[in-house]
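Saturday, quiet lab. Running sequence design on the structure tokens for the scaffold JK sent over.
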């Protein structure tokens, strides 16, 4: 084979390689441009249909009130009454980006935490709510429960109140 033919074959091969590299570069650029950051994980997004609050808590409430009481340490009626007292304070507005967590779910998570001491990770998996959201909501809901029920709570001195507040903060971390 002559040197001229070898050069022509080499140029054709280099042109093919160049075209393939350009195509690969375009594909990578498309991936970078189209790659979206996960705002809400899929399993959390499905909370409305598969979350513990939707399925298990609802079933326990209607079919086995004793187990419901065992899990939240209160009857469904007491839960509804407490929810009516704190709902307006703990319910946030929905935004264009996402729907706010319902006050009912926030209260269920908080009462489950207080009744069982479940870890935030376990609560997150059971109720399909992010761990950071749980770590913010539990102290907030505890504070609202205290505010709503303080007329019924007899405290002998300020030290006991401060200790309770510290325990709520410590347990929420």
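Result came back. Writing it out in full:
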């Amino acid at each position: 084979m002559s040197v001229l033919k070898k050069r022509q074959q080499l140029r054709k091969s280099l042109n093919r390689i160049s075209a393939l590299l350009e195509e690969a570069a375009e594909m990578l650029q498309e991936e970078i441009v189209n790659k979206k950051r996960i705002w809400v994980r899929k399993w959390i997004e499905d909370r409305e249909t598969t979350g513990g609050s939707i399925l298990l808590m609802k079933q326990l409430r209607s079919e086995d009130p004793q187990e419901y009481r065992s899990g939240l340490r209160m009857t469904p009626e007491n839960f509804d009454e407490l929810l009516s007292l704190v709902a307006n304070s703990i319910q946030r507005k929905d935004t264009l980006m996402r729907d706010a967590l319902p006050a009912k779910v926030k209260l269920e998570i908080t009462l489950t935490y207080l009744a069982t001491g479940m870890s935030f990770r376990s609560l997150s998996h059971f109720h399909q709510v992010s761990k950071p959201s749980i770590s913010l909501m539990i102290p907030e809901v505890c504070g609202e429960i205290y505010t709503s029920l303080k007329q019924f709570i007899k405290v002998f001195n300020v030290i006991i109140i401060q200790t309770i507040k510290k325990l709520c903060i410590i347990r929420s971390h």
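Notes for JK: Residues 46-171 form one domain. The radius of gyration is 28 Å. Ask whether to fix the surface positions before the next round.
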